[in-house]
Design brief:
Layout (H helix, E strand, L loop, with lengths): L7 E6 L2 E6 H9 L10 H15 L12 H54 L10 E2 L2 E2 L4 E5 L2 E11 L2 H13 L5 E5 L2 E9 L2 H12 L6 E7 L2 E5 L1 H25 L7 H12 L6 H17 L6 H20 L3
GO molecular function: peptidoglycan binding
Keywords: Membrane, Transmembrane, Transmembrane helix
Pfam families: SPOR
Amino acid sequence: MDKPNRKTITIKINGNEEAYINEKKKEIKEGKTETGEEAAPLLIESAASKEKQEESFEWVIPSGEVSSFEKESVFVSSSLQKKKINRNERIFQKVFVSIITAVLVGAGFWYIAFRTITASDAPTVNTTAPPIEDGRAAQQTSKVNLPPVNLFFVQGGVFSNREAAEAARDDFASKGFPAIAVSDGDKTYVALFASDSLENAKAIGKTYKDQGIDVYWKELTFAGGETKLSAEDAKVVETGAAFYQTLTVAATQHKLGSTQADKEAIETDLKELLAMEAKDENVSKMVVSLKEAAELLISGELSEKAIAQVQSQLLQFVSMYEQLKS
């Protein structure tokens, strides 16, 4: 008897084929033979046993591959974790910014309060400008020492009080003789002529004696001393004192009949003095006196009247120099 055709299903798993007899399985399960007769129990059991053997196989899934479901699960889990981390970072940033802002605002309020308190406790500063004297702003001065000045002069008298000396000075002036009163300690002298040396003062004194005037010759040193002048004005006075000595040499030569005065040296020293700016009023007058005396001496041969004018300016310089002492 021919074997019936069987329809088989082949499953290929991991490169191995497995056949499954579909029709025969069905007939055996129903308990029928090909002729339609009921099969014997033994045959059914045998077929069933065979079927179990044919049906039994193992599903082998490669361990190296990951199903798409597992991949998606991993991806979703990773995405959720990243979102959670980003959310935590944003929360931390907001908290950090809030803390920094609060600290800055608090520090600002503290600084404003501190400035307000210290400003209210600070002493009041007087910013009032100093008063103006004689139309000019008062200058800040400090004490400086004036240089010493040596005087060799024809003396018209010596007095124990200044009032008597000033009266004698005025008497000489009324007679056409320039004169000043200068003090040294407790004595006041009347000076008639400023010379460059004691010997020349003695020689010039004889010319006064010839006119019937009782005179002497005297050497006197002004020690200078402290004065309240600015440094600039003190420098002008120092330069003027040196220029005064130069002018006494020329004035003495003219009085004794010599015209050999060093005009070039006088002109140079005069330019240096005039280039300096004197701010004190008395210092400015001293510069003017020296200037007028110098201009007369460099003008040429001088008459007795011009010589007297030179002496008047030189003696005026000495008198104002004495007044600068504090």
